[in-house]
Amino acid sequence: QVQLVESGGGLVQPGGSLRLSCAASGSSRSINAMGWYRQAPGKQRELVAEITSGGNTNYADSVRGRFTVSRDNAKNRVYLQMNSLKPEDTAVYYCNARKIVAGIEYDSWGQGTQVTVSS
What is the largest CA-CA distance in the chain? Predict the structure, then answer.
């Protein structure tokens, strides 16, 4: 079991920036991918960005060019730098860690951190 703790959410004006952080602990060895998902009210949870242990990244089209995901493997941390924020980025952001063991994927989730973009 991997425990994930997020930090860095808050209220920001449109066009502003925020940086989310997520720290992994517990059975955090051999995590294959870490990333961020978000869920807005009345909508399904969606992938925002993810990064593999090798540094390959994947972004949702809606955030590509504005958000940057990075990872510190030594510290088991993943970050999300969010720039040029828009009101539609408002959501609860969840940290995710994925391990693949014997071909089976295991997902762990953080408790979520609220990001609100509003003037």
Answer: 48
- The position carrying tokens 């066009």 is 15
Interatomic CA distance for residues 85 and 91, integer angstroms: 12
Burial label, 99 (beta-carbon count in 10 A; 0-12, 13-18, 19+): middle
Euclidean distance between CA atoms 73 and 53, whole angstroms? 7
Distance from C-alpha of 91 to C-alpha of 23, rounded to nearest angstrom = 20
Residue count (the chain): 119
5-46 pLDDT per residue, tens: 999 999 999 999 999 999 998 776 778 899 999 999 999 999
